Amino acid sequence: MQMNGQKLKESKRKKKCKMKNLFKNGFLLSSVLLAIISCQNKKEDFDASGSFEAEETIISAQVTGTLTNFNLEEGQLLETGQYVGSIDSVQLYLKKKQLEAQIKAIGSKTPQIQMQTGTFKKQLALTQSQINTLLIEKKRTENLLKVDAATRKQLDDINGQLDMLEKQLDVIRNQDIAQTSALSTQKSGLLSERSPLEVQVEQMNDQLSKCRIVNPLKGTVLTKYMETNEMAVTGKPLYKIADLTGIIMRAYITGDQLSTIKLNQKVRVLVDDGRDKYKEYQGVITWISNKAEFTPKTIQTKDERANMVYAIKAIVKNDGFLKIGMYGEVKF
Q1: Contact in structure between 330 and 269 (CB atoms under 8 Å)
Q2: Same domain for 294 and 205?
Q3: Domain that holds residue 283
Q4: CA 288, CA 286: separation in Å to the nearest integer?
Q5: Dihedral through CA 286, CA 288, CA 289, CA 294, nearest 10?
Q6: pLDDT digits 0-9 by tens, 105-162
Q7: Which of the 8 DSSP states describes residue 153?
Q8: Domains contained in the chain, number
């Protein structure tokens, strides 16, 4: 009887321990389930995902020559109009001096019409003065002839001199016109030779200005393609630059999401900050593709249309944390 009592007590003790273990295991299982549910609740439900990019601009050489200096480094922030380097311009400068010398030589050959026809102008003035004097003398002689104080021969002599001077005046005037015309033709021919040279000088000035490398837009240098003392060739890239103050999130949405977004719509852009959390930015949709990607365009059913993917772009103000190629999520 005593042994049966002990067995009964032992059985009750084991049963009690088993119940405790079940309760303990159930509590742990419930805790795990709650944790999983909690984590799932904390997970963000994103509408789209994609990566960051920027509008990149490749700056190329505009003239051919050796890079005498090239003062920039990758990652450097450049301002608009900032001087970054220069290309050897000696040959262009010498070519310009040669053209200027040719223009000067043509200028020395160009006739000075007024100066070269000045003699005719003086002769015309002198002859006209003589004619005016004889006209006065003729008037006086005619008055004297009326009172028989002069002879007819005196008046005839004056008229003869006047006739000769008027013919001489016509000759001088015609010579002046002919000389002026000839000199004008000569001058026009020389000027026609000079004009192309002057245009070439302007071209040289333009190329000389392009030997000075000036950054055209504000941004960060992404890639440097050349170094000092290397040969730059017209059209050959020098460096790549992009404005990272406003970076672009390129994301992809399904066809059934197209009706829920529009241009200039504000969106939330979230980026993993590396501590199992998201850093949030505000973006604005600036572009929506009108063509589907990754799937055929011939899909017609409603369910299949929903699987078509469209690209969108949202501009995001960058505080320096965002980098090209980083992944992000978009919430409309």
Answers
A1: yes
A2: no
A3: 48-55+242-331
A4: 7
A5: 110
A6: 887 777 776 776 778 788 888 888 888 888 888 888 888 888 877 788 888 888 888 8
A7: H
A8: 2
